[in-house]
Amino acid sequence: MKKFRRKNREPMHPLMSYVLLIVIVMVLSGILHLVDASSAYNSINNITLDSKPITEVVTSLFNLSGIKYIFSSTVANFANFTVLANLIIILMGISIMDKSGFLQTAITLTTKRMKKKTVTFIFVLICVLSSVFGNLSYLIFIPLGALLFYYGKRNPAIGIITAFAALSCGSSINIIFTSSDSALLNYTVLAAKTLNVNYTISGYAFLFIMLVAVLLVSYVITIVTENILVKNLPKYEFTERELEEDIVTKSEKKGMIYACTGAIIYLVIFIYSIIPNLPLSGALLDASQERYIDKLFSVNSFFSNGFIFVVTILFIILGLFYGIGVKSIKNHKDFCDNLGHSLDGIGNVLVMIFFASTFISVFKETNIGNILVSSIGELISNINFTGLPLIIFIFICVCVATIFVPSSISKWIILSSSVVPVMMNASMSPEFAQIIFRFAEACTMNITPLLAYFIVYLAFLEKYNQGENKIKLIDSIKYQIPYTLVITFTLVILLVIWYLIGLPLGVNSFPTIS
User: Fold this and answer.
1) pLDDT class for 438, splitting at 50, 70, 90?
2) What is the CA 377 to chain-centroid distance, rounded?
3) CA–CA distance, 354 with 368 (Å, rounded to integer)
4) Which of 103, 118, 167, 426 is the most buried (most CB within 10 A)?
């Protein structure tokens, strides 16, 4: 009888998983508040370099005021959840590319003669490098990854899972110095100046090790995808028509020429607008910033604020011009219908985003994440390790911290005042401290539901799910665990080798200091 009941028990719906997590966080916040749980870290003044202790305490939501907060803020949190608006906008561009036939033709032309592993590696590498565009790359490459594998006659879930692993890891590993790296670097320098007021770090200080990491991680993600994920996912059932060999006709080639011509003209105008110091150029930049990357991605930069729309317009141009060329878009009605193609059946996605936004908001309001990270910072400050034990200990601490606070800047604000001085006292450079931090968070960013874009990954897994049961929250995490384990092993070995040999991290930057 027990066996029968266990066999027929309904698996928990992902929405109910989020509801359960919300309840757990509320109860936990009440317990921690009752025992006066708190932690402290040092905030460094960027002018005087004085350290000021900041104490983090738990806000209880397991009371009347907590319930009032949830009821009064839930609608606003959902409406202001940037993932929602950006996803709808980018899906309009992807819709017209897909419905017009552009994506199928483009994928057929570029991948038909490639081996599957080669296609996977190139896609993973692009996803890793795309982190220069920030979190918006999740909204672009998760749906595109599904279509890439679908038109390649493979399970679309492979593309979704692989894209999310590569994007999560790539958010911390990149050869291009991003706006996030710039912000982290400022806190690293501030922490270093508490021991050496003249310490400075170049924007090229991480170039060499990051280049190796990008290629190495892209390769191991490809290996995990092809040798583990593909073999363990259920077979995707295609119709006979979908399995027919794709042949690109003259009309479709003509459409590609139209699409590429329109896109090139658009991109030339756009790129010219982000180049500074040329006649009538730089219109999309924030001229008040010093570093170019900050001019590009600052809060007041048009490029940063309007980037998702810029990409959407590019996708619309590609789909529209292709559709005109092949005559799949004959009038304005066809054009308007194509824009909404990918939004069909988006109701489940919206409901998932609603519960996910509520869970993230509730967790942030309790302040549990910051207390945990602050406690980890205190633990690091009091540790007596040096050399390899210290490197591995800090690496593990950051891996754990990332699960509860995915935001790189929020974590580093708290941890930098502990990690950097401890490593400098152990004769290791602040640059190496930041590298350890970035590598460690790359390993667990893909397994935390507190990452705002995790829900996009889960929603698209469900969209392409052919099974009778819903994709559970635990399933989406389970698919990512092999990537976490292999990337963790790879990056730890890379750090150890770099430290033992003493290879330069970048230009005039080494793991150790004199």
Assistant:
1) very high
2) 24
3) 21
4) 167
Reading the block at residue 339, the tokens are 């824009």
For residue 47, what pLDDT is reported? 67
Number of neighbours of residue 24 by Cβ within 10 angstroms: 12
Tokens of 58: 């738990």
Q: Token pair for residue 125?
A: 């590498």
Structure tokens belonging to residue 5: 């009941």
In 3D space, the residue among 441, 440, 377 whose CA is nearest the CA of residue 407 turns out to be 441
Give the Cα-Cα-Cα angle 466, 471, 477 (nearest 5 degrees): 135
SS3 labels along 123-185: HHHHHHHHHHHCCHHHHHHHHHHHHHHHHCCCCHHHHHHHHHHHHHHHCCCCCCCCHHHHHHH
Phi, psi of 274 (to 5 degrees): -115, 10
- Write the DSSP symbol of residue 292: H
Q: What is the pTM of this model?
A: 0.91
- State the pLDDT confidence band at 1, using cuts at 50, 70 and 90: very low
Computed over every residue of the chain, the mean pLDDT equals: 88
Of 297, 119, 137, 348, nearest in space to 225 by CA: 119
Q: What tokens were used for 255?
A: 């459409």
Tell me which residue has tokens 């005042």.
417
The β-bridge relationship of strands 51-57 and 38-44 is antiparallel
CA-closest candidate to residue 319, choices 87, 98, 86, 90: 98
